[in-house]
Design a protein that fits this description.
335 residues, alpha/beta, two-stranded antiparallel sheet, 8 helices, 13% strand
Length: 335
């Protein structure tokens, strides 16, 4: 109902009111945009597949982000054997196929105190020898005599094989020496069916012009016989064997290894070989007789003795054994 007065003129909203209203709309619009994005308004980056590697390549990166081959320290080993226990052969021989191998995988020159030095590590007894008994039984020339190519090696009473032990310690030793800059070559790395034979093992060290060669073993003597001993070459000459030039440096290498092995492992020198010196001199081992570079063997303990076997089967002890060997070798090479 009209009261006779003209209707009031509508009031325009002030600029300040418009500004307030516009500001109130901003969060609402932004929320809507976020919802639209979540639904699929833009491309989902997480749905993109990683770029494939070039054809023929595959990633070697492990779950922890590191690259390279996985460590396999428990795999078995292979080499010429020393005699055991009372000093008579126990059936352990010298090596596998004869031929001029390059000693397995070497390394590029590295920086460190041993840079430029070459060390050949000879893991005693290839695990494949047990499947090639006829091949390893054949006779090979060691200069002063003829001996079996190789044997299967010994084991603990619980079945832990010398081949497994020697390769494990050898791999640990390789890692330690390479960290110091040395170039390390193996005579075998469980990478061949059997062997190599003892004569080839010697040739590998000679061909590499190694500054030091260490053949790693464990003994198979009677229970109660305990401790380690390092075997040094005797002065021999006959056929291809002539050790005159290596007897002196090999003894120095052996003495340094023995001293550091005691210090690192706490093991005592053998109570049945070497008159408690931890050293023994032999003239019947082809791996020593045919060598033209400083070389020794080490029997790290007696696998047939319970106390020694407890040490040899312990991974932490094997690491200390490798450290003792590495320290002895480094001491020799640094003079």
């Amino acid at each position: 109902m009209s009261n006779g007065c003209p209707p009031p003129t509508p009031r325009r909203p002030s600029g300040r009111a418009l500004l307030i209203a516009f500001a109130a709309l901003i969060p609402i619009c932004f929320s809507g945009w976020l919802i639209w994005q979540a639904i699929g308004g833009t491309e989902d980056e997480s749905a993109k597949a990683p770029s494939p590697l070039p054809a023929g390549q595959s990633s070697s990166r492990s779950p922890d982000g590191k690259t390279g081959q996985p460590e396999n320290p428990g795999a078995p080993g292979g080499s010429e054997s020393s005699d055991h226990g009372d000093g008579k052969p126990d059936g352990k021989g010298d090596g596998g196929n004869s031929g001029d191998g390059d000693g397995g995988s070497g390394t590029h020159h590295r920086s460190g105190p041993l840079s430029g030095k070459v060390v050949v590590v000879d893991p005693g007894h290839n695990p494949g020898n047990r499947d090639h008994t006829s091949e390893i039984a054949r006779q090979v020339d060691i200069g002063t005599n003829r001996k079996e190519c190789d044997t299967t090696g010994t084991s603990t009473n619980d079945g832990y094989t010398e081949a497994a032990f020697t390769l494990d310690v050898s791999r640990r030793l390789r890692t330690l020496l390479e960290k110091e800059g040395a170039t390390v070559k193996f005579t075998q790395d469980d990478d061949r069916p059997y062997g190599p034979c003892i004569d080839e093992r010697a040739r590998i060290g000679n061909k590499a012009k190694a500054d030091a060669v260490v053949s790693i073993h464990a003994d198979g003597s009677a229970s109660g016989n305990q401790g380690f001993h390092v075997i040094l070459p005797s002065k021999v000459k006959g056929g291809a064997a002539d050790t005159a030039e290596i007897v002196g440096p090999s003894r120095e290498l052996g003495e340094r290894i023995a001293g550091n092995f005691v210090r690192e492992t706490g093991s005592e020198p053998s109570n049945y070989i070497g008159d408690s010196t931890g050293l023994d001199v032999r003239s019947d081992l082809g791996g020593l007789n045919l060598s033209t570079v400083p070389k020794v063997f080490i029997e790290c303990g007696n696998m047939r003795d319970r106390e020694d076997a407890d040490r040899l089967t312990n991974g932490k002890w094997r690491q200390r054994a490798a450290q003792g060997l590495a320290d002895g070798i480094q001491s020799f090479l640094k003079g």
